[in-house]
Design brief:
The complex is a heterodimer.
Chain A lengths: L3 E4 L2 E4 L5 E7 L7 E6 L6 E5 L3 E2 L7 E6 L2 E6 L9 E6 L6 E2 L3 E5 L1
Parallel strand pairs in A: 2-11
Antiparallel strand pairs in A: 1-3, 3-8, 4-5, 4-9, 5-6, 7-8, 9-10, 9-11
Chain B lengths: L2 E5 L2 E3 L5 E8 L7 E7 L5 E7 L6 E3 L7 E6 L4 E6 L8 E11 L5 E7 L3 E5 L2
Parallel strand pairs in B: 2-11
Antiparallel strand pairs in B: 1-3, 3-8, 4-5, 4-9, 5-6, 7-8, 9-10, 9-11
Classes of the chains: A mainly beta, B mainly beta.
Chain lengths: ~110, ~120
């Protein structure tokens, strides 16, 4: 199975900040990577697919990059509603696997 | 608009079975792949399975192989997941999600929409 490792596990930031988190795959997954946002007690929300393509309706403050094994998610101008846990997922080969998540907290 | 609504969760004893359903609206299950993803309490997301749009190709997480059966009823726009021989570590929230295809061999499916989840608790 492909292992997905996210770093950091938690991240403290302030409203207005720009943050970047990373996701590393244990083998080449091309650009078959998605990012999700999950708030406590809620279903995940899809943000990005194909490493850098925004899902419909997702604001452009979110951006993704990378290919192969190393990927990043950047969020510009943090707002209170952006504090959540973010997960990456590879869908290049079965079984699809998620990273363990990065929890974005208010500093 | 696109909606997915899961149901069928509950508290069950170890060794028993449970059938989850996912009713969708705003699209046809016959036109899309459908995923199941689960989340144990206070844990991360775990991919469970995907069923291709045609209902023929299906892929399952190794930890659940032999214990799950999934299908879809295009006429009712509904997806089903049956879990057998349930264990305490099957406890969690089960989400259905819509998959969009990336053409290839084999095709790959990324998630765009999620349901709100249904809670499964396996306990004696």
């Amino acid at each position: 199975d492909i292992q997905m490792t996210q770093s950091p596990s938690s991240l403290s930031a302030s409203v207005g900040d720009r943050v970047t988190m990373t996701c590393r795959a244990s083998q080449d997954i091309r650009k078959s990577l998605a990012w999700f946002q999950q708030k406590p007690g809620k279903a995940p929300k899809s943000l990005i697919y194909a490493a850098s393509t925004l899902q419909s309706g997702v604001p452009s403050k979110f951006s993704g990059s990378g290919s192969g094994t190393d990927f990043t998610l950047t969020i510009n101008s943090l707002q209170p509603e952006d504090f959540a846990t973010y997960y990456c997922q590879q869908y290049d080969s079965y079984p699809y696997t998620f990273g363990q998540g990065t929890k974005l907290e208010v500093k | 608009q696109v909606q997915l609504v899961e149901s069928g969760g509950g508290v069950v004893q170890p060794g028993t079975s449970l059938r989850l359903s996912c009713v969708v609206s705003g699209f046809s299950v016959g036109d899309y792949a459908m995923h199941w993803v689960r989340q144990a309490p206070d844990k991360g997301l775990e991919w469970v399975a995907v069923l291709a749009y045609d209902g023929r190709n299906r892929f399952t997480a190794e930890s659940l192989k032999g214990r799950i059966t999934f299908s879809k009823d295009n006429s009712k726009n509904t997806l089903h997941l049956q879990l057998d021989s349930l264990r305490p570590d099957d406890t969690g929230t089960y989400y259905c999600a819509r998959g969009r295809v990336v053409v290839g061999a084999p095709p790959r499916y990324y998630v765009d929409y999620w349901g709100q989840g249904t809670q499964v608790t396996v306990s004696s």
